[in-house]
């Protein structure tokens, strides 16, 4: 019964997993400026056109295997890694797939976001990231991946301009949100220092009106 209620909660947009902590530095009617502390991430860089079979979802399954979402965790420990949220994509190359969870030998609970980013200097390649739970303070504290394509690394503190919205994050909607926020940030004298990322907090079966999405633009 509890599991059923949990699934129904996710259908209606309830976020039941760990989300990254942050400090709101500035809040306006148009956006927030947030500071996120350092984190540990699991990352894979790949060419989406070369993905086949179970990897056709853009490397998501590879990272999901590392934390144990799809079965036995593909790492060298038995430590559970909690799932977090949101899933993050950069430059909207890859559609969000369902929850990131943890696996065995070390079961890693699902976390979010999952991050993907394009490589301007390496055309066609994308980087996808899972942010690991807050308990992992250093890369060496996280379970070691079995798959050599998965890299565990530390990411320093960063600051983002953020806009939240509901519904389906289509390319058209995301593009409109990004352009408006860029104009709003520039209007207010906020310096943009990188490309946007799209954060999605819900699995694909969540009803569109109840989905939580965020556009995040790195700022100085």
Observed structural traits:
SOUL_heme-bd; 220 residues; 6-stranded antiparallel beta sheet; globular; 3 helices; single chain; 16% helix; Heme-binding-like protein, chloroplastic; alpha+beta; Reg_factor_effector_dom_sf
C-alpha termini separation: 47 Å
Total strand segments: 10
- Overall mean pLDDT: 78
Uncertain spans: 2-7, 92-104
Overall structural domain count:
2
What is the helix/strand order? Answer: HEEEHEEEEEHEE
Helix content: 10-25%
Strand order of the largest sheet: 1-2-8-10-9-4
Largest sheet: 6 strands, antiparallel
Beta-strand fraction estimate: 25-35%
Quick overview:
The chain has 220 residues and is of the alpha+beta class.
Task: Please give the structural blueprint.
Layout: H1 2-11, E1 23-27, E2 32-36, E3 39-46, H2 60-67, E4 87-90, E5 114-118, E6 126-131, E7 151-155, E8 158-165, H3 171-187, E9 197-200, E10 213-218
Antiparallel strand pairs: 1-2, 2-8, 3-6, 3-7, 4-9, 5-6, 8-10, 9-10
